């Protein structure tokens, strides 16, 4: 529950602090006194985005701080999941700096707006005047029924499954689009792929082919030069081998004279052996050189195929061609394997749809089970609130389609008067009747939810007299199970509060400020009397005020 609220430098508020109690609390004040300002400040604690224009003094920061007693609400797991420090007396603070930057803290730990919103859902419900109209909103109607049906865990599981179902549908859509595109390009891609495959690409093949082509194209030149080299080395009289042999023999004769001559002889011996080996290889090479027009034609054809492919695909190496071959192979495979992939995706969708339908049936059955008792309670409360002939009908129909909250179509229909026909809630009820129905719904929800605090902003709109008195009784009863704060203009409701605060404007130096004070004793009697009879309080108004308090 909210135990303390402090607001500084916000709109017309300079600096206020109020301590709140359990049970039913009343807030009154003239129109424009600043009640909506206080609600706006509370909304900031619940994660609403900050508005820089709300700062009263642009040279100071705006600070809004609320203390919440959360000891009885098992919120430790939520604090852990949001990476926040848990305290039984949790303090939430929002700051709007003069620079326009906004900061949030939970128990002095920096927090983001998402964390505030997550906490706020478990701490406080602000029922604004316009929210009454949400009774006609289908999402709100589902929310009410699901709270009564205790469907929260089932809905979470269902929505997780629904996300997976939609992901499978998206995958199928992508596969079909890819298949359609691949089918258009399949024949052309297959032709290109077979054309590249015909080249039998291997790393280094282009260099080998080009080298072989040069050899086959220069047979006569090779024979002539290799033959000349062999003759130069092995010619009988003046050949290099013969000359080197004579030099080697000369050195051998003096090799024993000193180690240096021996080294020269050994080096010359090595040269002689190497040269002799070269001569043998030259002779072998010469023997292998022969004209082969047929092989030359084959090598040339393979090279031309390579060159043509490189030009066609605008690349210059075999490795780049191999990469293109891989890409084409993948594109062709997409088309060839598409049916199998599509069949797999459709199977996943079918299985997930079946799972969704089973989960949706659980939601449907739970809703169906609680609706009759809910209708009975609503009609009983409405009878006490001056709508004895009101009849509520809730239609729940199972559909084939899957929606975000199951497979149900839900309709709340109302016949407000005896003999009247059923119609949509927003068409069948007046403003005052809508307020009474909303109060009835909220009072029932209060017994199911574990929410600490609810704030009603003029839930009594459109009602008066005895009906207001009965509404006050319901609010007071709600205050027995949770903290209820009501902003009201009706003395019948204001008199029921266990505590009473008044918001008012007062003139300060060169400005007007909003302030708040707790009313007790005679001050409270005077406030109720003014609400009953205006500024000119009569004795009867004072007596009536005392009667309301008693």
TrEMBL record:
Coiled coil: 158-236, 272-362
InterPro entries from the UniProt entry: DNA_recomb/repair_RecN, P-loop_NTPase, RecF/RecN/SMC_N
GO cellular component, one term: bacterial nucleoid
Domain RecF/RecN/SMC N-terminal span(s) in chain numbering: 2-507
Keyword tags: ATP-binding, Coiled coil, DNA damage, DNA repair, Nucleotide-binding
A single BP term in Gene Ontology: DNA repair
A Gene Ontology molecular function term of the record: ATP binding
Pfam families reported in the protein's UniProt record: SMC_N
Family from the record: Belongs to the RecN family.
Function: May be involved in recombinational repair of damaged DNA.
Name of the protein: DNA repair protein RecN
Phylogenetic classification of the source organism: Bacteria, Pseudomonadati, Bacteroidota, Flavobacteriia, Flavobacteriales
Gene designation per UniProt: recN
């Amino acid at each position: 529950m909210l135990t303390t609220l402090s607001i500084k430098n916000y709109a017309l508020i300079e600096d206020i602090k109020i301590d709140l109690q359990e049970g039913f609390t009343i807030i009154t004040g003239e129109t424009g006194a600043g009640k909506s300002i206080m609600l706006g400040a509370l909304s900031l604690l619940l994660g609403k985005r900050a508005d820089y224009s709300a700062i009263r003094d642009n040279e100071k920061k705006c600070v809004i701080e609320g203390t919440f007693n959360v000891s009885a609400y098992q919120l430790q797991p939520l604090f852990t999941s949001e990476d926040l420090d848990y305290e039984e007396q949790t303090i939430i603070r929002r700051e709007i700096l003069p620079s326009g930057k906004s900061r949030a803290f939970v128990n002095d730990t920096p927090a983001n707006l998402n964390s505030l919103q997550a906490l706020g859902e478990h701490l406080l419900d602000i029922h604004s005047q316009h929210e009454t109209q949400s009774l006609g909103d289908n999402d709100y109607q589902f929310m009410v029924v699901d709270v009564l049906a205790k469907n929260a865990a089932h809905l979470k599981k269902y929505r997780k499954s629904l996300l997976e179902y939609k992901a499978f549908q998206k995958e199928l859509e992508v596969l079909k689009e890819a298949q359609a595109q691949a089918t258009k390009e399949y024949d052309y891609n297959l032709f290109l792929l077979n054309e590249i495959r015909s080249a039998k690409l291997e790393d280094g093949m282009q260099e080998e082919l080009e080298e072989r082509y040069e050899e086959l194209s220069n047979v006569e030149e090779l024979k002539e030069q290799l033959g000349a080299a062999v003759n130069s080395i092995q010619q009988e009289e003046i050949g290099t081998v013969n000359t080197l042999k004579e030099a080697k023999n000369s050195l051998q004769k003096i090799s024993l004279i000193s180690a240096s001559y021996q080294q020269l002889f050994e080096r010359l011996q090595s040269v002689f052996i190497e040269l002799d080996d070269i001569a043998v290889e030259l002779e072998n090479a010469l023997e292998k050189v022969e004209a082969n027009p047929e092989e030359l034609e084959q090598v040339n054809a393979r090279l031309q195929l390579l060159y043509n492919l490189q030009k066609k695909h605008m690349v210059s190496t075999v490795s780049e061609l191999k990469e293109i071959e891989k890409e084409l192979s993948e594109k062709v495979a997409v088309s060839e394997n598409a049916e199998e992939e599509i069949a797999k995706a459709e199977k996943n969708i079918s299985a997930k749809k079946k799972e969704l339908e089973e989960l949706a049936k659980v939601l449907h059955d739970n809703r169906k089970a609680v609706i009759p008792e809910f209708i009975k309670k609503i009609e009983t409360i409405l009878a006490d609130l001056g709508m004895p002939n009101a009849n509520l009908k809730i239609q729940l129909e199972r559909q084939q389609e899957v929606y975000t909250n199951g497979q149900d179509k839900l309709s709340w229909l109302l016949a407000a008067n005896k003999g009247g026909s059923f119609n949509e809630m927003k068409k069948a009820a007046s403003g005052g009747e809508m307020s009474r129905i909303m109060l009835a719904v909220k009072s029932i929800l209060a017994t199911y939810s574990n929410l600490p605090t609810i704030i009603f902003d003029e839930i009594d709109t459109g009602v008066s007299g005895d009906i207001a008195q009965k509404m006050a009784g319901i609010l007071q009863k709600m205050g027995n199970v949770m903290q209820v704060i009501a902003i009201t203009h009706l003395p019948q409701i204001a008199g029921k509060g266990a505590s009473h605060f008044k918001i008012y404007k007062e003139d300060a130096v060169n400005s007007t400020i909003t302030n708040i004070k707790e009313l007790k004793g005679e001050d409270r009697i005077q406030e109720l009397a003014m609400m009953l009879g205006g500024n000119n309080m009569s004795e009867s108004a004072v007596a009536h005020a005392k009667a309301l308090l008693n």
